[in-house]
Amino acid sequence: MNVLDIIKMNIKSYRHVTCCMKPDDNILFLNYHENLNVDLSLAKELVANRLEFTKNEKHYLIQHISNVLDINYEAIQHLKNTDQGLKNILGLACVTSGAISAQIADMFIKHPKKFPSKIFNAEKEAIKWIHELKEYHQITQQ
Fold first, then answer.
1. Residue (of 64, 82, 83, 61) closest to 17 by Cα position
2. Phi and psi for 45 in degrees, rounded to 5?
3. pTM of the model
4. What is the DSSP string of 53-116?
5. Which of 1, 2, 12, 45 is the residue whose CA sits 20 to 30 A from 25?
6. Is 133 helix (H, G, I), strand (E, B) or coil?
7. Residue 25 per-residue DSSP state
């Protein structure tokens, strides 16, 4: 993503995450702030932030999880729940930069869910995949 793309986006920074989305688009970028240890309380807060920012509408999600250092069992269960942590997600691209974030992403990618998901090492590839997925959904829904 280049600077001009960022300038055109709606951006809101919460306590532990920054949300970005172009107006009239349904691709959400989540960037977690540094050194997060996610427990159930924080997981609930992060989901609430995402749903508030997207106005509880369905969306595609590109999330950078490299700053997530640890996540406990209760938080994982909440985030994997279709009526809670996975609510309104149409497709998920996880961008990782190391072994820890890749392991965390893998827990969510391999979990059975109603939407496609994939892990990427670069945001550019994640964006390309999400756009392809979005285009596929538009074609198949006609």
1. 64
2. -65, -45
3. 0.90
4. HTTT--EEEEEE-TTEEEE-HHHHHHHH-TTTTTTTEEEEEEE--SHHHHHHHHHHHSS--SS-
5. 45
6. helix
7. -
Q: Are 78 and 44 in contact (CB under 8 A)?
A: yes
Going by C-alpha positions, the residue among 63, 68, 60, 62 that lies closest to residue 103 is 68
Q: pLDDT digit string (tens) for 49-104? A: 999 999 999 999 999 999 999 999 999 999 999 999 999 999 999 999 988 888 98
Tokens of 20: 């970005």
Separation CA 111–CA 97 (nearest Å): 21
Query: What are the tens digits of pLDDT across the range 89-102?
Result: 999 999 999 888 88
- Of 120, 140, 116, which Cα lies nearest the Cα of 128? 120
Helix 40-53 to helix 73-80 angle (10° resolution) is 30
SS3 of 12, please?
strand
CA distance 120 to 105: 10
* Burial tier of 94 (Cβ tally within 10 Å: 0-12, 13-18, 19+): buried
Taking residue 81's Cβ as centre, other Cβ atoms within 10 Å add up to: 13
